[in-house]
Specification:
This protein is mostly helical. The chain has 7 helices and 2 strands. It has a single domain, classed as Four Helix Bundle (Hemerythrin (Met), subunit A), CATH 1.20.120. Helix content is about 60%, strand content about 5%.
Length: about 170
């Protein structure tokens, strides 16, 4: 039987990242059809103090890899955050999906009681006394915030997307 915290994390991240990747493809078509400079989307923000579209995708990928990694007790891979194009963003999503697919679901056994410490030894240290608290009160909401913001940036800038695009394939 697959562990419930695996089921509640890895497949969800996988599905939503695949949808985000498909939305990148739709955005590239939108840009090409209208002869828009890609930087208009890559550097887009909803408000000046918010992260750009590129950064929203990077952070979504960061949560999609780090949350299941920590739950499984495996090392979180480090990415450079050097993406500058849609091609780069597709590659980052693909790399993240490959990592998620490589995590053995059996490693999630005991994750409900696994203590998770973020940014240890810093003023921003945060401790979760169990995997459920970490996943449901932190990891999933953080991930969805950044995926939703990326989607909103595309919609705000005229890409023809709807709820089915956000949710991805069933």
């Amino acid at each position: 039987m697959t562990h419930p915290l695996y089921t509640a994390s890895a497949p969800v991240f996988r599905k939503m990242l695949a949808a985000l990747d498909a939305n990148l493809t739709k955005t590239e078509k939108h840009i090409a059809d209208r002869k828009i400079e890609p930087a208009a989307f890559l550097d887009a923000r909803l408000f000046p103090d918010m992260f750009t579209f590129v950064r929203q995708v990077q952070i979504a990928c960061d949560f999609a890899k780090s949350v299941p990694a920590r739950l499984a007790g495996v090392d979180v891979p480090s990415y450079e955050d050097n993406e500058k194009s849609f091609e780069d963003l597709h590659a980052r999503i693909a790399k993240t999906l490959k990592f998620i697919d490589g995590i053995d679901a059996a490693k999630f056994a005991g994750s409900e009681g696994r203590r998770i410490v973020l940014r240890p030894g810093t003023p921003r240290e945060r401790t979760f006394e169990g995997g459920e608290q970490y996943l449901f009160a932190y990891g999933i909401p953080q991930f969805f915030f950044h995926v939703t913001t990326a989607y909103a940036l595309l919609r705000h800038n005229g890409v023809d997307l709807g709820k089915k695009d956000f949710m991805g394939e069933a």
